[in-house]
Amino acid sequence: MAKTKTVKKAPAKAMAKAAPRTAPKPAAAKAAPAKAVVAKAATSTPTSMAGTSGQGLVRLLEDDGTVQKGKDPNLPEATLLFLYEQMVQVREFDRRMLMLQRQGRIGFYGPILGQEAATVGSVAALESRDWIFPALREGAAAMMRGLSLTEAINQLIGNGADRCKGRQMPCHYTFKEGHYYGMSSVIGTQLSHAVGAAMAARIRGDDVVVLGYLGDGATSANDFHCGMNFAGVYQSPCVLFCQNNQWAISVPISKQSASETLAQKGKAYGMPFVRVDGNDVLAVYTVTQQAAARARRGDGPTFIEAVTYRRLGHSSSDDPTRYRDEAEVKAWEKKDPVDRFRAYLQKRGLWSEAKEVAFKEQIAQRVNDAIAAAEKNGPPADETLVTDVYAHVPQQLKDQLADVLALEGRGVNQGAFPL
Ligand SMILES: Cc1ncc(C[n+]2csc(CCOP(=O)(O)OP(=O)(O)O)c2C)c(N)n1
Ligand SMILES: [Mg+2]
Questions:
Q1: Rounded to 5 degrees, what angle do the CA atoms 167, 419, 154 make?
Q2: Closest CA to 152 of 214, 94, 79
Q3: What is the pTM of this model?
Q4: First to last CA, the chain
Q5: Which of 45, 142, 217, 324 has the greatest number of beta carbons closer than 10 A?
Q6: 187 lines ligand 1 (CB under 6 A)
């Protein structure tokens, strides 16, 4: 039986006080506050969605990587390169994890292809002491906060080195040191948690903002309304960020809501709202930074709708060709967030074809090394089947464990992953 580490209980004050493990991002946190259109959008009254195109959409980067005159937020070079690195890394990570799933090396995976800018841009806009309450597609946030790729893969495998000891479904990373709350698959429930955690931070006097994510589908869940209402009434210092990727498994946005935009739902709860091009990392970064600054100075929550697209299936268990048109997917491929940002970097003289080749190899190697390291770890110890629920394992559970162990060697645990 493999040995597993005992996880010590976190001290009560851990949540707001624990220093996040050094994430390779401080440059991003130090970026100068962005200005102009987005400041206006994020701090405007609900009825004035400032923006640059249809339905108040905030957009800074054009498809060809140019920025409209006077709109460049002029982020520091280190921040720009960090954003690019993280977007490329999560794309490669996704690609490889889907392959591992198809090879039966992990049981399940939920990709974010097409949504890299929405996740990476919003997380990078926060300070490392701020907390993240993810929805389904923000695993990259944990990695940006310092969760190593190997640890992430340990979780996907559910091996003995996984901090959740294989008890969670794949993709449900948890990373307290990085102020990344464990993901809940129960749609929308994390919003009340995010709003409440931000309120708690304020009561304690901690300078902490909470970024809570949701999908478009979550706007139909009861917990969305509960979280939004609390946030508005109590002026919780949070940013609620909706990744409108147009689909909730097989349900299109047209069947999800009769509202003209999701962003405008913020109005009903008395909070400013902004609709941003989720494939434009500069715009996402800028609006989120503005919203976080607003929350930090005590002016309450902001609701952000990031308009983006889920280009692959809902998860490795899904086949989207059964319910949506390939032409729609192709149209969104042309709005690729990574290509658009790379074009911008090249125009600014910060990137080149030669750099791209070497960089891609480096990222591929990083993911390869992480897979190799994670696959060296054995399975969780058998006794973890009954530990961590009671302070002392009751006799009845000890007996059950003994019964299970007596079956070992008879292949009782062999079989298809049940999803
Ligand atoms: C309360 C609840 N209802 C239903 C489900 C099943 N379910 C899992 S993911 C999902 C769709 C979520 O869509 P969305 O919020 O748009 O997020 P996305 O998957 O697009 O990122 C549903 C309905 C669930 N997990 N929880
Ligand atoms: Mg969705």
A1: 40
A2: 94
A3: 0.87
A4: 27
A5: 142
A6: yes
Atom in ligand 1 nearest the alpha carbon of residue 256: 16
**Does residue 245 line the site of ligand 1, with CB under 6 A?**
yes
CA neighbor of 126 nearest in space, from 253, 367, 288, 278 = 288
pLDDT digits (tens, 9 = 90+) for 363-392: 999 999 999 999 999 999 989 999 999 999
Angle at alpha carbon of residue 213, lines to 208 and 218, rounded to 5°: 140
Rounded (10°) CA dihedral 68, 117, 305, 61: 10
Please spell the DSSP secondary structure of 216-245, one letter per residue. Answer: TGGGGSHHHHHHHHHHHHHT-SEEEEEEE-
Summarised one tens digit per residue, pLDDT across range 290-328 is 999 999 999 999 999 999 999 999 999 999 999 999 999
Active site (catalytic) residues: 310, 314, 323
For the purposes of burial, counting CB atoms within 10 Å of the CB of 13, is it exposed (0-12), middle (13-18) or buried (19 or more)? exposed
Identify which of 94, 109, 136 to mutate to test ligand 1's pocket (most ligand atoms within 8 A of the CB): 136
Pocket test of ligand 1: the residue of 249, 250, 307, 308 to mutate, having most ligand atoms within 8 Å of its CB, is 249
Question: Position of tokens 């962003």?
Answer: 263
- Residues 167-219 pLDDT 10s: 999 999 999 999 999 998 899 999 999 999 999 999 999 999 999 999 999 99
What distance in angstroms lies between residue 234's CA and the mean position of ligand 1's atoms? 27
Provide the residue type at 111 as one letter.
P
Ligand 1 atom nearest to CA at 310:
20
Residues of the chain with pLDDT under 70: 1-55, 408-419
Q: What DSSP state is assigned to residue 125?
A: T
